Amino acid sequence: MDHFQYQDGQLMAEDVALTDIAEQVGTPVYVYSTATLKRHFRVFREAFATVNPLICFAVKANSNQAVLTTLAREGAGADVVSLGELMRATKASIPGERIVFSGVGKTDEEMEAALRVDIKQFSVESEAELEALNIVAGRVGKVAPVSIRVNPDVDAMTHAKISTGKSENKFGIAWQKADAVYGRIKELPNVKAVAVNLHIGSQLTKLEPFREAFERVLGLVRELRAKGHDIKHVDLGGGLGIPYDPAAATPPAPSAYGEMILEVMGDMDCDIILEPGRLIAGNAGLLLTRTIYEKQGENRTFYIVDAAMNDLARPAMYDAYHAIVPVTEPSDGKTVTADFVGPVCESSDVFARDRKTPALKSGDLVAIKSAGAYGAVMASTYNSRPLVPEVLVNGNTFEVIRRRQSLEDLLALDSIPSWLED
Ligand code: LLP
Fold first, then answer.
1. Could you report the per-residue pLDDT of 270-316, keeping only the tens digit for each?
2. What is the pTM of this model?
3. Which domains, ranges and CATH numbers included, belong to the chain?
4. Which residue of 202, 314, 318, 322 sits with most ligand 1 atoms within 8 Å of its CB, as the best mutation to test the pocket?
């Protein structure tokens, strides 16, 4: 359930008309709903009510300070993958004890910064990283809490570009090898094992791959404990899918996911960490864009909108489906079949192909839905298109939470070398 609904023929974000946002902020613009963010977080938390897990929002999904602060106030922790994300999480007042650090290429600088704020867990992804972390922690005078990210070699049955739990993926350490790496942790003075973690992929629409992977990892936890490792918690990652296409099968509800986890966990006596990203933010945001032209091609209709693949990369990158709806509800029920495309000079700059849609004319606003996760965060300035603004709605008010990048901002990053001056 999200809070983007039609009211008197106008698409609203909570109690704010999207036309008002377009008028005041311009297009394209990302619009997020506070009520939806909070609702998704609460529904997810309630799915695990009996065990009270630490829910570390995957900051990569949406790293805006206002979004992070909204979730932090609900009790969210953060899953971060870079110094930038760590800074964003701490600036949003998320304490170190609610931060986990994932990623295959942590640098010494990143490790040091994370040690200084006493994060909950380093999700270590290679032996080399473990050795490096031991050295950095020694230098900083701390003992780093380590979880080995285990690669369970399970097919997540999702898009190849967002699958992470197969042996051919760069992520984690093969589960068969994990035992030896935990043995190595015992030999190192500045690291200690506290957890086991995994993350097998994103936008999973079935529970079976999760179950298979979790069972494998919990078997490992039992073995490690039997060998005297003090495994306090398991971090089961993120990945639960969301409905993008109303005509497609609905992914499992958080409640079903929660039940499955509690069933698999049995009487493990282990705290649980979860790292949802998309589930919290995906359907809490949309990209509002204006139709620039209608163009009749040889045998198809193109709606050329002012947003493009640099603003929302998912359709071009993963052939992702995003629903596209007119902001003013059509009254006549007539539909056409059209392609929604952006102005970027790439054939892949297509938001939707052969989409049944109410007929539009130039100037009409449309909303590209489910764009709250992996939308603004993946934007680029390709074709020298400035980053678009983000707006957060709360009830009947809204505020800009990231201003539109100006062309001056964009150009200011370049400089002319001395030999080209004058
Ligand atoms: N934890 C780890 C270690 C991750 O790598 C990810 C996502 C998550 C948690 C959150 O997963 P979620 O709950 O959001 O599925 N850009 C792609 C998605 C990439 C996901 C990367 N890792 C997309 O737009 O579909």
1. 999 999 999 999 999 999 999 999 999 999 999 999 999 999 999 99
2. 0.97
3. 4-31+282-412 (2.40.37.10), 103-274 (3.20.20.10)
4. 202
